[in-house]
């Protein structure tokens, strides 16, 4: 699924501008990492693309659908194709790993058909396949709050796989993990993205990881896109400039965990 932003602007209720005339086109299957200092607008931009924040002007399109104008069933169908990977995991801690993965079908099947005791054998088989893909099939019946942080993020990725999303948004997906677990999660996430030819838009602070995993880097400063290109074509000096003299208009925290739109 491709994404197109045209003249997107966002102003907070107190009149503070946070996004200013953002134009951005992301091709289907492309992996884009958003970079910039705290307050540059990158998390707000991601929230706007997810539909969690309204925009003040412009348009956001995903595939053939305008997120800005979609309503009702059209909006629900669009959201069912969008997965999210965030810093926190948004798992139901007192339920099993298996049940949490089944919840990836909530947006398509509804709550009743997403429960372990009422879902079809086909759905249960698919959930186990997703857990096998992230290396956690042997922990299917364990409560998620008994897992490590890296394991919980893998459960959340399995839930996104269960959703069968075509577009994935990620906000600081490894910020709460130690470096080794973080790299393992990034390896897994981008392996799955490439296997399924998904489009991914990711916010990262770690420049080394951004340059290693992204097909394309997009840098924001004061709510505007000031850098856009392949990692190999962007100098360290240009990246460093993103973090010089930045305003703090966007004080948005990282958004949560791997979450399938429901």
Concise summary:
This protein has a single domain, classed as Rossmann fold, CATH 3.40.50.300. With 262 residues, it is α/β, with parallel strands linked by helices. Helix 5 packs across helix 6 and helix 6 runs parallel beside helix 7.
Structure description:
The chain is α/β, with parallel strands linked by helices and 262 residues long. The chain has a single domain, classed as Rossmann fold, CATH 3.40.50. It is built from 9 helices and 11 strands. It has helices spanning 42-50, 72-79, 97-102, 106-109, 121-133, 149-163, 179-195, 207-213, 236-241, and strands spanning 3-11, 17-26, 31-35, 57-62, 65-66, 82-86, 167-171, 199-203, 216-221, 224-229, 259-260. A 7-stranded mixed beta sheet has the order 10-9-3-8-7-6-11, with helices on both faces. A hairpin with a 2-residue loop joins strand 4 (57-62) and strand 5. Helix 5 packs across helix 6 (149-163).
Which terms summarize this structure?
ATP-binding; globular; Rossmann fold; 11 strands; 23% strand; 262 residues; disordered C terminus; alpha/beta; four-stranded antiparallel sheet; 32% helix; ABC_transporter-like_ATP-bd
Layout: helices, strands, pairs:
Elements: E1 3-11, E2 17-26, E3 31-35, H1 42-50, E4 57-62, E5 65-66, H2 72-79, E6 82-86, H3 97-102, H4 106-109, H5 121-133, H6 149-163, E7 167-171, H7 179-195, E8 199-203, H8 207-213, E9 216-221, E10 224-229, H9 236-241, E11 259-260
Parallel strand pairs: 3-8, 3-9, 6-7, 7-8
Antiparallel strand pairs: 1-2, 1-4, 4-5, 6-11, 9-10
Helix pairs in contact: 5-6, 6-7
């Amino acid at each position: 699924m491709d994404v197109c932003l045209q003249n997107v602007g966002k102003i907070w209720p107190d009149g503070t501008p946070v996004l200013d005339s953002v134009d951005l086109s992301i091709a289907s299957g492309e992996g884009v990492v958003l970079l910039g200092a705290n307050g540059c607008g990158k998390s707000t931009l991601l929230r706007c693309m997810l539909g969690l924040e309204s925009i003040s002007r412009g348009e956001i399109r995903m595939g053939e659908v305008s997120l800005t104008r979609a309503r009702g069933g059209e909006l629900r169908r669009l959201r069912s194709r969008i997965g999210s990977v965030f810093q926190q995991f948004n798992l139901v801690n007192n339920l099993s790993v298996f049940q949490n993965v089944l919840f990836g079908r909530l947006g398509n099947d509804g709550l009743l058909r997403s429960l372990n005791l009422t879902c079809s054998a086909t759905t249960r088989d698919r959930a186990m396949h997703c857990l096998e893909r992230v290396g956690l099939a042997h922990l299917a019946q364990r409560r998620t709050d008994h897992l490590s942080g890296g394991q919980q993020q893998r459960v959340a990725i399995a839930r996104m796989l269960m959703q069968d999303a075509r577009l994935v948004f990620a906000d600081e997906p490894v910020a709460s993990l130690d470096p080794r677990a973080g790299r393992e999660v990034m390896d897994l996430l981008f392996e799955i993205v490439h296997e399924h030819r998904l489009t991914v838009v990711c916010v990262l602070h770690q420049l080394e990881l951004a340059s290693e995993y992204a097909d394309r880097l997009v840098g924001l400063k004061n709510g505007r896109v000031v850098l856009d290109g392949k990692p190999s074509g962007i100098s360290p000096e240009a990246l460093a400039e993103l973090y010089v003299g930045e305003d703090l208009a966007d004080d948005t925290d990282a958004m949560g965990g791997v979450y399938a739109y429901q």
